[in-house]
Design brief:
Lipocalin, 8-stranded antiparallel beta sheet, alpha+beta, 56% helix, 331 residues
């Protein structure tokens, strides 16, 4: 019994191993197919021309030509479908796997336009040649695509009516690159320009402050000048008045001296009369009385003369002649 079981196992083992190998092969193929559905071949930098077939979204023929370009180091690719309903688009690429630099695969490309979304998967099938499956996500319809890298001498191989569309797009793309390059240069200049703007702003601000201070100082000096002019005018009037008084004093000096001498003369004669009265006492004689009366008359006359001279001096009517010398005659 045991021998029969061992013999049976020996006969079954090769078949079992074959089944397991077939199952492993089938599993690997299925996994490979699943992986193929989740990747797109990484495209080296360059220009590519291709075609798409099997989708009704592109008319009765279900086909359309398209153009792809990738710049070195860029994380995007430019796509152009030669259909009036589709506009050129910039599509972000996402490397698949840990090594994003040297990985030959990307995640599936998704391109939207004209109300639908297309999902591209595929593989590299030859030297600079790629192909795969394209799926219209909304309807689930599938088609195929082929893509070939163009050399510098290759033409795109477009129909006559398609050339103008592509040339226009390429011209616009070239202009876009020039604008991007110019923007990059300007972005590099922005910090330096910002510093210059800040310097100019500070200069203008400081200039405004200096102007305000200058205007304030000017107004202060202007007010001070007005004040000095008023003081100068007052001093000028005062000087003119002093000059007038000096001239007047020069004119009346001799007259003043005459009045002063007359006053002194009266005072001297008054003292003399008083002395004579004290010395005479009660023994005065008729001659003395007559002399005393005459002296009183002289004093009265001289006082009257003095008052008249004073009045004439104040009125400015005193004659210039007869004022020379300091001698005044007394009686």
């Amino acid at each position: 019994m045991a021998a029969k079981e061992i013999s049976l196992k020996k006969r079954i083992m090769p078949h079992l191993l074959a089944v397991l190998a077939l199952a492993a092969l089938l599993s690997g193929s299925f996994l490979f197919w699943l992986d193929m559905q989740q990747r797109f071949p990484a495209l080296p930098a360059g220009s590519y021309s291709g075609s798409l077939q099997g989708l009704k979204a592109f008319g009765k023929k279900g086909s359309v030509r398209f153009y792809i370009e990738r710049s070195a180091g860029s994380k995007d690719i430019f796509t152009v479908f030669l259909d009036n309903k589709w506009r050129p688009a910039l599509v972000r690429i996402i490397p698949k796997g840990a090594d994003k630099q040297s990985n030959p695969w990307w995640y599936p490309l998704t391109i939207s336009g004209s109300g639908i979304t297309l999902r591209f998967v595929g593989n590299k099938v030859g030297e600079n040649t790629f192909s795969g499956i394209v799926t219209e996500i909304e309807s689930g319809r599938e088609g195929t695509w082929q893509l070939k890298k163009l050399s510098d001498s290759d033409g795109i191989g477009l129909a006559r009516e398609e050339h103008g569309f592509v040339e226009t797009w390429l011209a616009l793309k070239k202009e876009l690159r020039q604008i991007q390059a110019a923007n990059l240069r300007y972005e590099k200049l922005i910090p330096a320009q910002q510093q210059e703007i800040e310097k100019l702003t500070a200069f203008i601000t400081e200039g405004s402050k200096l102007k305000e201070r200058a205007e304030t100082k000017y107004n202060e000096l202007k007010n001070e000048l007005r004040k000095l002019r008023r003081q100068t005018a007052a001093k000028s009037k005062e000087m003119i008045e002093l000059e007038r008084q000096l001239i007047l004093a020069q004119k009346v000096t001799k007259r003043g001296r005459l009045v002063e001498l007359s006053r002194k003369s009266l005072e001297r004669e008054a003292r003399w009369i008083e002395t004579m009265l004290r010395s005479a006492g009660a023994d005065s004689t008729p001659e003395f009385e007559r002399a005393y009366e005459r002296a009183l008359e002289v004093m009265s006359v001289k006082k009257a003369i003095e008052q008249e001279k004073k009045r004439l001096l104040e009125a400015g009517e005193f004659p210039e002649s007869g004022l020379e010398g300091d001698h005044v005659e007394t009686y």
